[in-house]
Design brief:
The complex is a heterodimer of chains A (127) and B (173).
Chain A (H helix, E strand, L loop, with lengths): L6 H22 L3 H20 L2 H7 L3 H9 L4 E9 L4 E6 L9 E9 L2 E11 L1
Chain B lengths: L8 H51 L2 E2 L16 E2 L2 E3 L2 E2 L1 H7 L4 H7 L6 E8 L7 E6 L6 E10 L2 E10 L9
The chains are: A alpha+beta (127), B alpha+beta (173).
Amino acid sequence: MTGIYTLDAVIAILIAFMILTSAVVMLSAPKKQGSQKLYAVTSDLLAVAEKNGGLAGAVDGEYGKIDLMKTVVPAQTCFKLTIRNITDDIVYSDDTGCQEGKDTVIVRRVLAHRESLYTAEMRAWLR
Amino acid sequence: MDNRGQSSSLDLVIASLLLVLIQIAIAQAWKMAVLRINSYADKKTLDNKLVDVSELLVATGGDPVDWYEKPQINPLTVNTIGFAGEDNVLDYARLDRAKTIGYDDFKEMLGLSKEEFRLTVRDVETPGAGIAYEFGGEPSGTRASITRYALLNGSVAEVTLSLYYANTTYMNT
């Protein structure tokens, strides 16, 4: 039998299709684990900063507790913390001093302090 | 001389040897590929569980929330263990009580089955405080870890959870 529609060709095309499909599926799979972990850790840091008075201290100009957060995170984790008041003015901003990466997670928390509301936003990424 | 149906036996031997060598190489490559795939799949499973289990520990008080006051703590009386009196604030009473739980019961109440675990709670704010609590075995083989943060007695504490499969011989990837 001549021609390209032989059994070998059909099998080869099927295998090639399966390999290509697998490759596309694997390459397009979202890499969630890393960002899930980072999100969880960032949420922790913001929650701890609120509960130990670090965020309120930062609003009042006392930076001891909020500066502590920079020392406890692993060296490969970078973050930027910004606190805004109700009119969206920045009342505090600090970061770990590294260039923001592309896979940044953002966590926000509302803070009530001295009868005013503030929004704390923490952006975190891996070095 | 009769030339019908003759083949060189040397060619046959070389061809057979080459074929065997190629088959051995393919078998080895396949074995390595399977090990890598298994290792990757295990790591992915562990990573997925890490966030869920660590969330239970640092952000919930457990189910029921008064589990640490029960006279008997086992998977029949307690569904899940949590250390938090409130979000990200650890409770000494829960941590102290957890030290009395057997490893297998502890594991089951964390929702783990094949996975082994190690858990440490360390005060990172107080100089020289070191590890306050540790539970579980020594990680080996394929493992995944996460470090969460919470307050313990007003100080910042690291809660590090490692999950691993015991006695695995997977390749490091």
